[in-house]
């Protein structure tokens, strides 16, 4: 009735006559029901905050409602959801770990020939390198560590790190490697 009065300008007396109810009881009922509902909401909020700590931060409104019922507090799911929403209480969710995709076989690029043909017996250092990418989880996603290994000496001769796995990760390292090698030859 209050909403209709505000929205359409109907008086409480007229609406009471149409609905065949007594208008004199409306205002006391409105005050009483609000205070009782408000008090119950405060009690429910107190209970929610009491156990919505530590490991229970992952509880959303359905689990909170079950927990409240287990403690003997009868409350509906929409009420719990509304109280949590109005007070900024949210379930903290964690995403499942998803391995990044490191191989894309569906491409139109030319496939490089296998020049080593599984022959890893190399006698001259700095002639054959192998590379690999390792992904490292961190706060905002993954870092990709590209390592280069000299097959002859079995030592890591360099590495590069970036937030992507694009070809530029390899190319940047190879350019740096070539500059380093040229500088070493000049000495």
TrEMBL record:
<dbReference type="Pfam" id="PF00665">
    <property type="entry name" value="rve"/>
</dbReference>
<feature type="domain" description="HTH-like">
    <location>
        <begin position="42"/>
        <end position="97"/>
    </location>
</feature>
<dbReference type="InterPro" id="IPR050900">
    <property type="entry name" value="Transposase_IS3/IS150/IS904"/>
</dbReference>
<dbReference type="GO" id="GO:0015074">
    <property type="term" value="P:DNA integration"/>
</dbReference>
<dbReference type="InterPro" id="IPR025948">
    <property type="entry name" value="HTH-like_dom"/>
</dbReference>
<feature type="domain" description="Integrase catalytic">
    <location>
        <begin position="124"/>
        <end position="183"/>
    </location>
</feature>
<protein>
    <submittedName>
        <fullName>HTH-like domain protein</fullName>
    </submittedName>
</protein>
<dbReference type="InterPro" id="IPR012337">
    <property type="entry name" value="RNaseH-like_sf"/>
</dbReference>
<dbReference type="Pfam" id="PF13276">
    <property type="entry name" value="HTH_21"/>
</dbReference>
<dbReference type="InterPro" id="IPR001584">
    <property type="entry name" value="Integrase_cat-core"/>
</dbReference>
